[in-house]
């Protein structure tokens, strides 16, 4: 591992109140000492105690003052990287920060690679790989849920869980190996049953983590949402309402939203990646048709469909086509224009549904009871929400329902371990695969050394999550995705 001294601008390179230049490594104090002067213009940085902060000046190597600064000194091992670290708080101008960084490099530091500070924290053993990865997730978090999950991961939720599972696997490996080495003293009599219980337990735990993993991904990256419905029902108006600005063009002419629009919408706890598609209907218009085809394709890989209906106009054959297209997807029916006289109600929706699918509708309101009832057999129901895109009504209800449909009873528990990384998911799948192999070997009464091979694989796969069984290449790849100065 490189132990040279690195430096980088740790704050955003834009005009701001304060900018921070971070310096870390064996020579950090010595290097900054050459360009720091206290108020009496003395070069005394190397005399300061650890974890103290000092007012003074950064100068160039000739002693000319560049900026007025506060400098903090954090000596190894009690720093972010576990190395000697000096942070220079200067004025936040982009030019100033660059100038100070150049000065520090002239004094002997090397410009850090992206993520190199956190990589050092990992390589020096202060944090495991899952915690290191969460640092970047915190910086990139788009919503409250994602932020909470990342902070929990930084505090070790994933690490502790994985470590616990690995210990259990290791115990079994050790037991088998010792028994095979020393059969006179350690008996494998009745062991298959014990191992079988433990394997079932471990498979259950891995399943649980994996079943949250897909939710975790949606939570972190956003729910891919498609708005469908006939022309003029209010799709663009709804999108505008969600986005909070007039991005989509709203008009009275049927079929104006011809191409697709994509918007990321943060609704407090959740993020929707909304794709607004063309109005879906049987049509001769070629341009319109392209839109419709596109809408069908997009709907296929959506996580959520928002199906907008105009409650003031009767349903027709076009609605039947739409239902046919989306019947197997997670769907919410939005009865729009609830400010006008109601022509379409639950029974009209149910009779439409009955032509195409077994699913029935439930009118969702902001009340737990309706929800609990609907949740029992969620896959058999389609929720209806009454909204008015014009009068801004029903949005709370929609957000509440989406949260429950995707994250209910899972992410809400504070101690729940939430896997949000696809790298972790892959490793968990591999561990699960190996554990299933052990289960199979047990059922087939294979010799004990068969068990230990697969247990070892599971142990190694889990180790990759926390960074115990990873090569340099992977470590480099993970940290290269970090931002500068982190
Ligand atoms: P789209 O073709 O489905 O995207 O529909 P638009 O969003 O362009 O809306 C069509 C027309 O319906 C526009 O004149 C909107 O102002 C109107 N509209 C949309 N939502 C509502 C609503 O909730 N109530 C009423 N009264 N009109 C609405």
Quick overview:
By secondary structure, the chain is α/β, with parallel strands linked by helices. It is 46% helix and 18% strand. It has a seven-stranded mixed sheet with strand order 3-4-5-6-2-1-7.
Give the SSE order as H and E letters: EEHEEEEHEHHHHHEHEEHEHEHEHEHHHH
> How many E strands?
14
Tell me the fraction of residues in β-strands, as a range: 15-25%
Rg of Cα set: 29 Å
What small molecules accompany the polymer chains?
A: guanosine-5'-diphosphate
Class by SSE composition: alpha/beta
Q: Uncertain segments of ≥5 residues (pLDDT<50)?
A: 409-414
Largest sheet report = 7 strands, mixed
What distance lies between the first and last C-alpha atoms, to the nearest angstrom? Answer: 18 Å
Shape descriptor:
flat
Helix coverage percent of residues?
40-55%
Average pLDDT number: 85
Strand order in the largest sheet: 3-4-5-6-2-1-7
């Amino acid at each position: 591992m490189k132990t040279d001294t690195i430096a980088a601008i740790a704050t955003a390179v834009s005009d701001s109140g304060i900018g921070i230049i971070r310096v870390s490594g064996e020579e950090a104090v010595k290097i900054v000492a050459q360009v720091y002067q206290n108020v009496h213009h003395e070069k005394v940085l190397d005399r300061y105690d650890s974890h103290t902060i000092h007012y003074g000046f950064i100068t160039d190597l000739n002693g000319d003052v560049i900026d007025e600064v506060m400098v903090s000194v954090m000596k190894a091992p009690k720093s972010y990287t576990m190395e000697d670290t000096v942070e220079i708080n200067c004025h936040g101008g982009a030019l100033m920060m660059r100038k100070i960084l150049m000065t520090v490099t002239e004094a002997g530091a090397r410009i850090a690679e992206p993520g190199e500070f956190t990589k050092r924290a990992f390589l020096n053993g202060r944090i495991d790989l899952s915690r290191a990865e969460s640092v970047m997730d915190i910086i990139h978090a788009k919503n409250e849920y994602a932020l909470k999950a990342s902070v929990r991961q930084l505090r070790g939720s994933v690490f502790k869980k994985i470590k616990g599972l690995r210990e259990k696997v290791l115990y079994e490996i050790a037991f088998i190996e010792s028994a095979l080495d020393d059969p006179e003293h350690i008996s494998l009599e009745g062991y298959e049953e014990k191992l079988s219980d433990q394997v079932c337990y471990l498979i259950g735990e891995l399943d649980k983590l994996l079943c949250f993993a897909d939710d975790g991904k949606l939570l972190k990256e956003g729910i891919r949402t498609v708005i469908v419905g006939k022309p003029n029902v209010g799709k663009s108006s709804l999108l505008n309402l969600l986005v909070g600005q007039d991005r989509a063009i709203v008009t009275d002419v049927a079929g104006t939203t011809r191409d697709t629009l994509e918007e990321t919408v943060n609704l407090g706890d959740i993020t929707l990646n909304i794709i607004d598609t063309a109005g879906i209907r049987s049509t001769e218009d070629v341009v319109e048709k392209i839109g419709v085809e596109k809408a069908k394709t997009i709907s296929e890989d959506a996580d959520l469909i928002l199906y907008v209906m105009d409650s003031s106009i009767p349903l027709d054959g076009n609605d039947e086509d739409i239902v046919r297209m989306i019947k197997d997807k997670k769907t919410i029916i939005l009865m729009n224009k609830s400010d006008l006289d109601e022509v379409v109600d639950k029974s009209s929706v149910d009779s439409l549904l009955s032509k195409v699918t077994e699913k029935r509708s439930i009118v969702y309101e902001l009340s737990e009871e309706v929800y609990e009832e609907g949740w029992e057999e969620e896959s058999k129901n389609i929720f209806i929400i009454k909204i008015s895109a014009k009068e801004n009504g029903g949005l709370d209800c929609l957000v509440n329902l989406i949260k429950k449909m995707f994250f209910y009873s899972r992410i809400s528990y504070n101690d729940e371990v939430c896997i949000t990384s696809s790298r972790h998911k892959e490793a968990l799948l591999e561990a699960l695969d190996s554990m299933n192999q052990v289960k199979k070997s047990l059922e087939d009464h294979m010799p004990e050394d068969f068990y230990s091979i697969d247990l070892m694989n599971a142990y190694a796969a889990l180790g990759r999550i926390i960074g115990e069984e990873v090569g340099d290449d992977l470590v480099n790849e993970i940290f290269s995705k970090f931002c500068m100065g982190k």
